Amino acid sequence: MPPVVVIAGRPNVGKSTLFNRLAGRRSAIVADTPGVTRDRKDAEAMLRGRLCRLVDTAGLEESAPETLAGRMRASSAAAVAGADLILFVIDARAGITPADRHFADWLRRQGRPLLLIANKAEGRATESALYDAYALGLGDPLAVSAEHGEGIADLMREIAEHLPPERPDSEGDDSAPLKLAIVGRPNAGKSTLLNRLVGEERMITGPEPGLTRDAVAVMLHDNVGPIELVDTAGLRRRARIEAPLEKLSVGATIGALRMAEVVVLAVDAVEGLHDQDLQIAKLIEREGRAAVIALNKWDAVADRDAARRAVADRLETSLAQMKGIAVVPISALTGAGIERLLPAVRRVHGIWNTRVATAALNRWFEGALARHTPPLVEGRRLKLRYMTQAKARPPTFVVFGTRAEQTPEDYRRYLVNGLRDSFDLPGVPIRLQFRGTTNPYAED
Question: Could you tell me what percentage of the chain is helix, strand and coil, using 3-state DSSP and rounding each to the nearest 5?
Fold first, then answer.
């Protein structure tokens, strides 16, 4: 495992901007607002030939443990405890504050290797703050401007030199991780579910809706192999999204969904399947991702049989394009039913990767045409000749024939439903394309 480099400091000193600069991509949400980062976010980076894992943390603040700021502080402290190197960031424009002094003393007591970073150090106006930084007792401050890229090359060299010696590669699982995203409406229990799956308080949770602002990836292993699990911000109806920061959060959620292979749609089982849940499910289908519905807060449902029937009826009438989608009742808070979630994810991932042999596909296709003859279009019969699978992830099939592209929508649905039932493809999008053949003797 690569060494861990944790970026810490009080709010609004530019930690996320520095994180993005070192990672070489805009991975963390950045806004000119204190407290944007709430959960730890990490990314791999290559710094002067050394691979490391960067960790962005929430701003360090002194607050009661039960408050949101207190929970953020606890999350940052957990990250610091596992660091191989800490980058303590101060704002060179603002100078040394009492909070900087307090947390410098706290970090010194942690006994971890540390570099003092004076960010926003553009121009000569910040020179006095650099001299004042020596009073923190953390060594020479490194002046950088994460926003403009100044001093970053020197910082990368310093980080590489302060990392622990490289460990020899150990025998491990080199298989590519399954990419899994958890999405849903605000307060559906997505972060609590991630914490339950990884077995630690990795994400900040609480009764407040909208706690998660960024898409945060965490690695875990089940009995099959590695999984890259991504928690995301809640998705509300588009008309309600007004704040610029929420727009950034939604953008990060959509990006995580598009990078995923399987998506767990977390639904509040007490409230039932909302219209917005269905809109999210349709978005998952449009992006071509496999899906599992996690009926969360199942322990709080009074009439479970009625709840199951209501969900099944709603899915049948409103989400026919994902017919057979797996529905797993769980309680992320108590852990009930959690053991069934990842096996369901693995099953639908296998279905999403399904490839059907061309011979078997065309035997089925001939039978489907015989059972239900293609309709007339403009008084002429469609001549659909054969079918092939173009790709998997999701299963995508192509039908060839004379005027095949004119096939009506109801006949397309008939073929898709037949493919799903005959080749056992529940819960995944099926793409069906039609390509007409050209007549070389037809007049132009």
Answer: 40, 20, 40
What letter does residue 145 receive in the DSSP assignment? Answer: B
Pick from 240, 256, 234: which is nearest to 184 by CA?
Answer: 234
Which residue ranges of the chain lie beneath pLDDT 70?
A: 26-39, 62-73, 124-126, 167-175, 202-215, 237-249, 437-444
pTM of the shown model = 0.71
Rounded Cα gap, residues 155 and 48, in angstroms: 10
Question: For residue 115, which amino acid is it?
Answer: L
| Residue 5 vs residues 44, 71, 74, 82, 89: alpha-carbon distances, Å | 10, 21, 18, 9, 13
> Looking at residue 326, what is its pLDDT?
95
Please classify residue 164 by burial: count the beta carbons closer than 10 Å to its beta carbon, then call 0-12 exposed, 13-18 middle and 19+ buried: exposed
Give the dihedral of Cα atoms 331, 337, 338, 342; nearest 10 deg.
Answer: -130
Cα first-last separation, the chain: 64
- Tell me the C-alpha distance between 319 and 410, whole Å: 16
Q: Which two tokens stand for residue 420?
A: 């799903």
CB-count burial class (<10 Å; 0-12, 13-18, 19+) for 244: exposed
Q: Which two tokens stand for residue 62?
A: 């002194």
Digit-coded pLDDT (tens) for 6-37? 999 888 888 888 998 898 876 554 445 544 55
Tell which phi-psi region holds residue 378, choosing left (phi > 0), alpha (psi between -120 and 50) or beta. Answer: left
pLDDT score at 172: 46
The CA-atom distances, in angstroms, between 437 and each of 213, 400, 431 are: 50, 7, 20
CA distance 396 to 415: 12
For 31, 69, 212, 246, 247, the CA distances from 243, given in Å and listed in that order, are: 12, 21, 15, 5, 6
Closest CA to 417 of 367, 376, 350, 368: 368
Q: Residue 38 in 3-state DSSP?
A: coil
Decide if 152 contacts 22 (C-beta within 8 A). Answer: yes
How far apart are the C-alpha atoms of 412 and 7, rounded to whole Å?
53
Find where tokens 């190197």 sit: 85
pLDDT tens digits, one per residue of 133-178: 888 888 889 999 988 888 998 999 899 989 888 765 544 455 688 9
For 190, the 3-state DSSP assignment is helix
